């Protein structure tokens, strides 16, 4: 792990992590973002859900998934008996909003990676749900499309990881909701069998 050997102290506590994200200038997004968006929810959650990056509303409110995609995400969670903040922690690959909602660039993903790794180390989730291409490809270190990565159980540092479509994509392509539902059921089943 890039966090160091198992014998080393954790790189961050929640307090130092929040402080680091709030004051981060590790990439160019710090020049245009309103605020860093660390994540929200249960810090002891079994479920860690990882999106792409804060949008305009998330940048303004300082919380992930508060816009339209977030509403669909909430419905997706409810469909498998979950709700925001209850055994669920939500975050993004990027903690800063990319201007115009453009795709994250590789240097930005790399600069933010220590924060995501620290969150995984602190939360120690039982399962990771990766939403969309950026989360899936960066965590699994692959160029494979979401359509190929979804529908099976991967692992990230020994933690089961399920990939599904990003809710913002599902808003544009609602016919894919059936496949997302399959992925959510797979994730729920995987959690139940742990
Ligand atoms: N899309 C994301 O990937 N994350 C958010 O927080 C909001 C929209």
UniProtKB/TrEMBL annotation:
Write down the chemical reaction(s) this protein catalyses. Answer: Hydrolyzes single-stranded DNA or mismatched double-stranded DNA and polynucleotides, releasing free uracil
What Gene Ontology terms describe what this protein does at the molecular function level?
4 iron, 4 sulfur cluster binding; metal ion binding; uracil DNA N-glycosylase activity
Which GO biological process annotations does it have? DNA repair
The record places domain Uracil-DNA glycosylase-like at 38-185
Query: By its UniProt entry, which InterPro entries does this protein fall under?
Result: UDG_Type-4/5 (IPR051536), Ura-DNA_glyco_family4 (IPR005273), Uracil-DNA_glycosylase-like (IPR005122), Uracil-DNA_glycosylase-like_sf (IPR036895)
Q: What class of enzyme is it?
A: hydrolase
Q: Name one Pfam family in it.
A: UDG
Concerning CDD domains, the annotation shows:
UDG-F4_TTUDGA_SPO1dp_like
Query: Which keywords annotate this record?
Result: 4Fe-4S, DNA damage, DNA repair, Hydrolase, Iron, Iron-sulfur, Metal-binding
Highest taxon in the source lineage: Bacteria
- EC no. given is 3.2.2.27
Which family does the record assign?
Answer: Belongs to the uracil-DNA glycosylase (UDG) superfamily. Type 4 (UDGa) family.
What is the name of the protein in this document? Type-4 uracil-DNA glycosylase
Which source organism? Thiobacillus denitrificans
């Amino acid at each position: 792990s890039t966090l160091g050997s198992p014998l080393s102290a954790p790189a961050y506590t929640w307090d130092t992590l929040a402080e680091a994200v709030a004051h981060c200038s590790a990439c160019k997004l710090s020049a245009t973002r309103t605020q860093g968006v660390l994540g929200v929810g249960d810090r002891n959650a079994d479920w860690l859900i990882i999106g792409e990056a804060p949008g305009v509303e998330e940048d303004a409110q300082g919380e992930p998934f508060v816009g339209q995609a977030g509403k669909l995400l909430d419905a997706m969670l409810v469909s498998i008996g979950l709700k925001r903040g209850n055994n669920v922690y939500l975050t993004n690959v990027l903690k800063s909003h990319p201007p115009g909602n453009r795709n994250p660039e590789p240097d930005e993903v790399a600069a933010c990676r220590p924060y995501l790794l620290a969150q995984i180390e602190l939360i120690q989730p039982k399962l990771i749900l990766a939403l969309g291409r950026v989360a899936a490809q960066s965590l699994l270190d692959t160029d494979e499309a979401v359509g190929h990565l979804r529908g099976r159980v991967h692992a990230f540092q020994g933690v089961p990881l399920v990939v599904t479509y990003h809710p913002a994509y599902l808003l544009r392509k609602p016919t894919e909701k059936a496949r997302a539902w399959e992925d959510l059921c797979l994730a729920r089943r995987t959690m139940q069998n742990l």
